[in-house]
Amino acid sequence: MTVREKIEQFERLTLIKGAALSSQTKGREKEEILDDLRTCYMVDRDRILHCKSFRRLKHKTQVYIKTFGDHYRTRLTHTLEVSQVARTIAVGIGLNEYLVEAVALAHDLGHVAFSHVGEEVLDKFLSQGFKHNEQSVRVVKTLENGGKGLNLTYEVLDGILYHSGFANGIANAQTLEGQVVRYSDKIAYVNHDIDDSIRAGLLKQEELPKDILKVLGRTNSKRINTLVRDIVETTSYNIKKNIYKVCLSEDIGKALENLRDFMFKKVYLGERLRVERDKAKFVLSHVIEHYMKYPEEMPEMYKIIVEGEGLERAVADYVAGMSDDYCLNTFNRLYMPKFVIY
């Protein structure tokens, strides 16, 4: 018996009914020889960790535009926090930790430079619209590995695609593990963005809604602890009644939703960041405009996309992959003078 088969056997013995067993995966688009040491989801996790798109997350901002402090979150540290929250929840419920980890690490690979401002610009630019969750799937299926993709399992792709959104009626991931990542993403970013906003002087502790703090807790760690415990307890209780859906209790879920709404009004779309958001839109729009005029300046892979899927798609893929630093450097190279003009 191989190490992989021992892990698969351990999963069958320890995970709950409804968990995604590695041995029962729907497989990959291109069939592969099974690894002797790692399950399919462990293989996916490792491919994601070692891909270039993952490394670029360290230079993509989470909320703030070009912050210079060492302690602000980036898209990479956000991803690691989501993974930590999701794995804790998965273990608490009895789900496949490896699948959760793979989805969590890949969920934001398609995010654009300058946080949600970048997504807004590309959404207006691309005729069929742009959503970072769909772009994350495109990254791992089409753009990574020199255009070959990572050939991830169906369950990981499904979890990436449906990680986004918090409103009722939005489609859920087919696995409970994918649903865990969706909640973990919200739990992580709402709380760490509060921490960063207070550090940046954009928000004061006393401005946080007191009724919400009474339910969730006054500190970042207490709120995360409340949310994680509630989602484990509520989901586990529902599963005992044969309701296979990851969820929070009504009161805790409403408190998280209200806290998220508060952050959108006060910080994400607030007036204090409007000037910086407008600057970011200006930079991105001009970089897009340049490559629409001069597509021959893009790397070879994107020229192939031009031929197969059109110029608009190729430019969107290229710009979406840029980190904040790379996008700013590109803008400066294209539009700023190289010498002082007297």
Can you walk me through this structure?
With 342 residues, the protein is mainly alpha-helical. It has a single domain, classed as Orthogonal Bundle (Hypothetical protein af1432), CATH 1.10.3210.10. The protein has helices at residues 3-14, 40-49, 52-56, 75-93, 97-106, 115-125, 132-143, 154-161, 176-200, 210-216, 220-240, 250-268, 274-293, 300-309, 311-320, 324-335. The longest helix is centred in the middle third of the chain and has 25 residues, at 176-200. The N and C termini lie far apart (76 Å).
Defining key terms:
342 residues, mainly alpha, PHydrolase_assoc_dom, 0% strand, 16 helices, Hypothetical protein af1432, 62% helix, single chain
The helical percent reads 55-70%
Terminus-to-terminus distance: 76 Å
How many E strands? 0
How many separate domains?
Answer: 1
Keywords: Hydrolase
GO molecular function, one term: hydrolase activity
Protein name: Deoxyguanosinetriphosphate triphosphohydrolase
Domain HD: 75-190
List the helices and strands and how they pair.
Layout: H1 3-14, H2 40-49, H3 52-56, H4 75-93, H5 97-106, H6 115-125, H7 132-143, H8 154-161, H9 176-200, H10 210-216, H11 220-240, H12 250-268, H13 274-293, H14 300-309, H15 311-320, H16 324-335
Helix pairs in contact: 2-5, 4-5, 4-9, 4-11, 5-8, 5-9, 8-9, 9-11, 9-12, 10-12, 13-15, 13-16, 14-15
Give me a quick take on this structure.
The chain has 342 residues and is mainly alpha-helical.
